[in-house]
Specification:
Blueprint: E1 12-18, H1 22-33, E2 38-41, E3 56-57, H2 68-92, E4 103-107, H3 110-125, E5 131-134, H4 135-141, E6 151-155, E7 159-160, H5 163-176, E8 180-182, E9 186-192, E10 195-201, E11 206-214, E12 235-245, E13 257-262, E14 265-271, E15 276-280, H6 294-307, E16 316-326, E17 333-336, E18 342-346, H7 356-369
Parallel strand pairs: 1-2, 1-11, 2-8, 4-13, 11-18
Antiparallel strand pairs: 3-7, 4-6, 5-6, 9-10, 10-11, 12-15, 12-16, 13-14, 14-15, 17-18
Helix pairs in contact: 1-5, 1-7, 2-5, 2-7
Amino acid sequence: MRPVATHTHSTVHDVLVVGGGIIGLVTAWRTAQRGLAVAVADPAPGGGAAQVAAGMLAPVTEAHYGEQELLALNLSSARRYADFAAELEEAAGADIAYRTCGTLAVALDADDRAQLRELHAFQEQLGLSSQWLAGRECRRLEPMLAPGVRGGLRVDGDHQTDPRLLARALVTACERAGVAFHRARARELTVSGGRAAGVVLEDGSAVAAGQTVLAAGSLSGRLAGVPEELLPPVRPVKGQVVRLRIPAAYAPFLSRTIRAVVRGSDVYLVPRASGELVIGATSEETGWDTTVTAGGVYELLRDAHELIPGLTELPLVETGAGLRPVSPDNAPLLGATALDGLHLATGHGRNGVLLTPVTGDAMAEVLTTGELPPEARPFSAGRFAGRTSAKEPANA
């Protein structure tokens, strides 16, 4: 059934998005473009995991066994990125640093090389475009690589953007599209007449809406008032990152994203056109802790040094930690729940930046027509109905 817009009072919105990260913002922007009156509830729109994410748009190098449906969604979103970036930059009057620079995944020893070979075979089986290179060919592409690199996969179709610029542009695009911002945290979902009717904010004020979208990242399972069986089962997975600066004298340092598995841990290096080099990311099951630890920073720099020995001479600019919202199958939860008027847009895990375009399109579609588009249907919000969500720690 087509949702009914409500305009009976100036404080009633057609759609209220709970959460102002990139997923909440793109949902709000795309839905406002469809003509609905949209609001976002978040104390600091544009914040969240986007402030820490590296911004790799890497559906091919991040292809995992058993995640073929997610791969299809990732590829669909990646194909939209160039047009999405151009439209967003025009709407916001700001650059999001979308770069078609490609990725090089490399191996440092025989075991890593065998694992990369298996990944290459899997990619070829799926019809994905990647090229196997010998170690010397990798070093010819990227002279800063360590001499011990044994081989690699060149993937020219994996790109990047700057999530901080992306989030900032989405805030501006939302403002220009007429999205209202309630700069406070949502405390409780309001349920009236058997349907979601908005939220109560931390300051006690009520925000009414015909439809409510829960897009609060790793916090999505903690909103009071949502029926227990409908709370999304997302958990926070901590990722620490290090940011270095590439002085002009060192340029060009790297021309593309470098990825590898070092001592069993994934590490990546993302060079920005601005001269920033982002190194990440740890993967830690530590609840809602965002402490930057000496051990996490040490491991990132140690593993990155194995790949690019010369980076130890670069200035250290920043360290940080963020929380990825991860679902049980590592895929997003999108669309309507069993409670009328309540929708989910959460659980994107490591793919939040990549899935921004397709999520915005899917949520705008379901909010205006009541139906998810075909590519999003395998990720319906109800597929984990009844599972226990991540709960708030006692000391939060």
